[in-house]
Amino acid sequence: MDISPFIISFLQLIWFPFKWTPTGHLIFQETFSGSTLNKTIWEVQTGHKTFGKTRLQCYREDNVIVNDSLTIQAKYEEVKCQENDGTTIDLKYTSARIRTRREYKFSAIEIEARTSNGAHLQPALWTQKSDSEMKFTKRLT
């Protein structure tokens, strides 16, 4: 097996780095200015289940703080967390989860964020399929 082309390609990436700049035009920008979350753009998801899995934290609207920036606050506090189906579970942590109400296709995404660090914290920013795409994927499997 000749690995010379691989080595040359790797060296080109090291010595000649490139910067990709998306083309097109801006279709969405959110700066979270003001003191409230714009609910025409964002949906606050509550409860403790995501994708059918029970989480250790209860997602609550109270943990979304907007003050010219967005803060999703994780707290250690014992709560009875209610799911949309009316069931409750005792949990010791609260957090928040939001998503855009709009779907985007073929987009370049740029996010500027600061995250906390600490034991058992898992800050995450996700891009996920839309609900309709997830239902289609489930039918295929």
TrEMBL record:
Gene3D superfamilies: 2.60.120.200
SUPFAM superfamilies: Concanavalin A-like lectins/glucanases
Classification via InterPro entries: ConA-like_dom_sf
Name used for this protein in its record: Beta-glucanase-like protein
Source organism (scientific name): Leptotrombidium deliense
